[in-house]
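input
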Amino acid sequence: MINNKLTGMGVALITPFKSDESIDFDALARLVEYLIKNGTDYLVTAETPTLTEQEKEEITRFVIQIAAGRLPIVLGVGGNNTKAVVDKLQTSDFSGIDAILSVTPYYNKPSQEGLYQHYAAIAKASPLPVILYNVPGRTGVNMLASTTLRLAKEFPIICAVKEASGNFTQIDDIIKNKPEEFMVISGDDGITFPLITLGAVGVISVIGNAFPKEFSRMVRLALEGDYNSSRQIHHRFTELIELLFVEGNPAGVKSMLAVMDYIENVLRLPLVPNTIKTYEKIRLVLNELNIKC
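output
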C-alpha cells in the first residue's frame, strides 16, 4: 500500500559531482548506502534542473540498482508544459519506481483552474501514484488548499501532497478536510515537527541527506506521539536547518556533506557553492553538535 511506503522520512537525494562537474557515481552509491543504513524510509530523485535528460535517466537507473528494492523510490516528473509531462508519463519506463512527484508549473503562473486541469491531465496519464508538490517560493504560484482538496477528492491516484508553502493555515486546512487515505507530507525540514503534530505523515527532507539517522528518528518519535523527545531533536537542528537554506538549496546541504567528507563541494551553474563565510558557519555548528568533521 502506497501510504505505508510514503510515511516517515523521505530524502530528496542530491547529485554528487566531481571537480570537472561530471556525476560522481561512486559518491552517489556511498550516499545511497549511507541513507538506507541510517533510517531513510524512501528516496526521491532530486537536483534535476542542472541535469540533462540522459543524466536524469542514468541516475534514476543507478539509484534503483543500488537500492535493490530495499526502500521505495519516488521519481520527479514535472514541468510547466502539461503536454510534455503527460507524454513523458505515457512513454517512460517506470520499472522500479513506486510513485511520481510532480511540481506545480513554474514561471507561467497558471490560475487555480489551470493548476487543477494540469494535475487532472497528469492523474489520467500516470501509471503510478502521484504526489503533488506545492513550493511557491520556487515556482511563483501557490496551489490553494481548495485546489489540492479538489484534486485529492476527484482522483484517487493522487495520493499525497508535498507541501512547502510554509503556510500553516493552508496546510492545516488540507489536513482537516482531506480524504482519509490522502497524505500530507512536509516539504520543509524546519517545520516538519509541528506539521506532524497537526497530522502530516512525514517529510521529504533535504537535511536528511546529511543526517538520516537523527532526522528520521525525530520523525518517527513524532509519529509515535513522543513529542518531547522529538522536539529535542527538532531544536538541536534548528540553526543547522537555517544555514541549509541561507544561500539556497542544494548549496547548503552540499557544504554539509563536503565538511563531513562524503562528497566534493561542486555544483553546476547557475548554482554555486556557499560562500566561505557560510561554509565556515556550517563547520562551526557541526563541531558544536559533536558531528565528525
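quick obs: The chain has a mean pLDDT of 95.
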